[in-house]
Amino acid sequence: MELNLQGKTVLVTASSMGIGRATAELFIKEGCKVAICSRNKDNLIKTANEIKSLYSIEPLWVVCDIDKVSDIENTISVIKKNYGDIDILVNNCGGPIPGFFENLSDDNWQDAFEQILLSVIRFTRLVLPGMKLKSWGRIINITSLSVKQPVDNLILSNSLRSAVTGWAKTLSNQVGKFNITVNNVAPGYTLTARLYELAVSRAKQSGDSHEHVLASMANDVPMRRLARPDEVGSLIVYLASEQAGFITGSTIAVDGGVIRATY
Predict the structure, then answer these.
(1) pLDDT at res. 108
(2) Crossing angle, helix 18-29 and helix 229-239, to 10 degrees?
(3) Using CA atoms in the order 202, 204, 205, 209, what is the torsion angle rounded to 10 degrees?
(4) Which of 24, 65, 118, 132 could join 12 via S-S bond, C-beta 3.0 to 4.6 A?
(5) Which of 96, 99, 91, 93 shows the shortest CA–CA distance to 111?
(6) Which residue ranges form the domains of the chain, and what is each CATH number?
(7) Looking at residue 140, what is its pLDDT?
(8) CB atoms within 10 A of CB 203
(9) How does pLDDT run across 52-62, given as a tens digit for each residue?
């Protein structure tokens, strides 16, 4: 299938590793001009060099703490200077701290709000004018299976990622007339550093090993395995394509069947 993405400018946020990095690589394979960002400069340089060695193309990289307005504004400015307006925005971020309701402070909630919801709003606000001028754009938010089936001990993520889906659905209705789509991809248990951290956290609570926790996670999936980051990235790239131009306001799970809801 021809996705017709050659030459499109793409920003994948929080993309020095995991699903973000896998997604950036897939866009590079499609001939896109790809920018990656992360708060960790060393990880960014390492990732950019590795991608260059694989594809003979070095992505544009920008150090960006997505909790900071100035960093977000600088990231968009650098990309515009080098590539022009952004055609495809993939909003990605790490997860907030795990914890039960009684153990979380106002600061914990504020940090999660900045990281998950407000970063998406800020990036989108800056790229929308260019998309409207072109009458073409794709905004894709990486959320979590928790927007359809809450995950125990992740009340911050469950709450704020669900807020992203409500925001995205509303925005999709407002920008559809400009040929801009807004969708969410909800990964299930995926082999990333974040999943490893969650396994370690659960292991501390249960007294079990994190290896056993990861095995239990895989056993809870009908397909009896964890997802690869590129399996999530493949859906993201498809949603960015011309072929997916009539899909908007949707939240699509990539979870191996672990979500039990029928919708």
Answers:
(1) 97
(2) 50
(3) 70
(4) 24
(5) 96
(6) 9-190+228-254 (3.40.50.720)
(7) 98
(8) 16
(9) 999 999 999 99
